[in-house]
Amino acid sequence: MVTNLEGLVSFANELANESENIIKQYFRTTLTVDAKNDDTPVTIADKNTELKIRELIQARYPDHGILGEEFEGTNIDSEYLWVIDPIDGTRSFIAGHKDFGTLIALLHNNKPILGIINCPMHKERWVGVSGEQTTMNQKKVQTSSIQTLDKSYVCTSGLYFDNDHLRKGFNKIIEQTKYHRFGGDCYMYGMIASGLIEIVIEDTLKAHDYMALIPIIEGAGGKVTDKYGKIVTIHSEGSIVASANDQLHKELIDIINN
Hints:
This protein is α+β, with helices and mostly antiparallel strands. Helices cover 34% and strands 24% of the residues.
């Protein structure tokens, strides 16, 4: 049983506030960019933001686990596990584009109960809480009611499809949708929650990239699974299909797998 969910939500917003303060100091400044082992970029802004979030969690909830992008996980088998991405969309951040954000998720017994997408330069924050309707800047949001591909808008962060059958499925989908766009990182998922687009499909993601998105999209009426339609966990293989509603989602999964 989750205890003091309201307090946990308040604390998660504190984390988002603190991360925003750090990120703004570095945005559109000259930064040294290093390459990680997987060739993805990292900056001092990523590292300092995650270190601050970790420091605050460990001070307030020392028995909670932490799984982040930039450093080794701690106590990841804990009843409560924070999953954080200090800057989702580091490439956008480096280039001075605003479509990046901080992702903060809280899992209870491996189930996501809280998620935040905080996009500081857009001044937009989505908060999803288990059993509650998702909000953006404290106002309730709802996914699109569109249920057919021919009226849908689909997005992806880029052509990062390691899996051949997911790539082919995505190509079939964009042939049938009204609009498609490449780029957007976590901001795309906020757009789904707010009812502005209908579909996001991605591959090669890790837990810190997607756990926060689940309660946000589901709390707005949408659905998030892997490419097979299975529930996503921290151990999932990296594909994400997010959509505005169950009917649309079923069609997407059918196309990808047939």
